[in-house]
Amino acid sequence: MAVGFLQRERIIAPPGWSRWLIPPAALSIHLAIGQAYAWSVFKNPLAATMLQGNPAAGTLTALPFTLGIVMLGVSAAVFGTAVDRNGPRWAMFISMVCFSTGFLVSALGVSLGQYWMVILGYGVIGGIGLGIGYISPVSTLIKWFPDRPGMATGLAIMGFGGGALIASPWSASMLGGFGATGENAQASGVALAFLVHGVVYAVFMSVGWLLVRVPPDGWHPAGWHPSEAKTGSLITTANVSANNAIRTPQFWLLWVVLCFNVTAGIGILERASPIFQDYFPDAGTEIAAAAAGFVAILSLSNMVGRIVWSSTSDLIGRKNIYRVYLGVGALLYLLITLLGNANQALFLIASMLILSFYGAGFATVPAYLRDLFGTYQVGAIHGRLLTAWSTAGVLGPVIVNAIADAQIAAGVQGPGRYTLAFSIMIGLLVIGFICNELIRPVNERYHEPTGEQAIRTTGAQAA
């Protein structure tokens, strides 16, 4: 249980507190942990200093990131109920401690020449910080913005997508300045970079846990009343506990929806540069710069899609917006597959939209969960659902890379290397689309008791 200044009771907002201070608090956490998407800048320095000559250097340098994403899903599922119970300040503080400690342990590991400590620090300890930090502001944002839950969660989760846009150039510049790159790369430079990351992110994330507040019971935005809340067959006024939620078909249908939407997006994102170069193999050095620009554009689309499409979901509904993510996404993959490299502009537009749907799927799903299961333990439910992300984080890259490697070995050139993989993505998106169509209101037997029913239940338990 949280103690002292971390207790939920200590962060109840006083009268007049502006709810618009909550998104910046959430962003300070998500922009920091979004550094995970910039892990690739450490791969070459680690390979050149700690793993020089190791034939498995490529796999080993990817391991901390892969393990970190797996631990994100696992820790979000395991600690989700504790996050809801103890409140956002406790969760953000624990996230800061774990995420920053992960960098510090990694720094020590590099200094001692012990690569297993980098895996432990960034992958395991830092990964726990990723999971707890990712879900920490969700239920709080939804309670502060009952009138616009999609926009609110989109604002915060946008930070996770955009964290790499800050971290990648900052980290690369730091590694270069500390002598961790080039032919004479020094391990001490990598260690110092990890150390600085740990300290700076601790300070930056402290803004979040110091600033965050929860609304008092019965609070609602000025000029808005709960009776004005948007209604619909999938928007419940009841509440479902996290333990009951995982017993419902709605949870598992949405699990498949998120998993396959993420699989389709991460399939392009993880191999973006080679895909672009295979589709448009121009001669000379310009292709490398163009591919790097393609990666940057996709990262920006991933970030912008999180706020644009999740805000749109407040207007047209969560089920409808996922019809767009999955249905239009499948058509865009079909377009890329059929078009090949005939039109670079259409390829870029289609890829950008697919990645915007990828990011938006993350940002919209907390509001979808709120619609289906209420606000009671939505953070814990969200944490358990994120195991779909861990699964997709392995599934997407494996599908695209394994098939592409097999095609390359067979001598296939150009877009043909990805025809089968992209066809599989179309199939997964269609399955996700069907699962979304099957989602119905949660049966009342899963609802938490209210009113006299709650009193009878409490009395029966006491007896």
TrEMBL record:
GO terms for molecular function: transmembrane transporter activity. One of its GO terms (cellular component) is plasma membrane. Residues 1-444 form the Major facilitator superfamily (MFS) profile domain. It is found in: Cell membrane. The chain crosses the membrane at residues 20-42, 62-83, 90-109, 115-138, 150-170, 190-212, 251-269, 289-309, 321-339, 345-369, 381-404, 416-435. It holds the Pfam family MFS_1. Keywords: Membrane, Transmembrane, Transmembrane helix. It is a multi-pass membrane protein. PANTHER family: MAJOR FACILITATOR SUPERFAMILY (MFS) PROFILE DOMAIN-CONTAINING PROTEIN-RELATED (PTHR11360:SF317), MONOCARBOXYLATE TRANSPORTER (PTHR11360). This is Nitrate/nitrite transporter NarK.
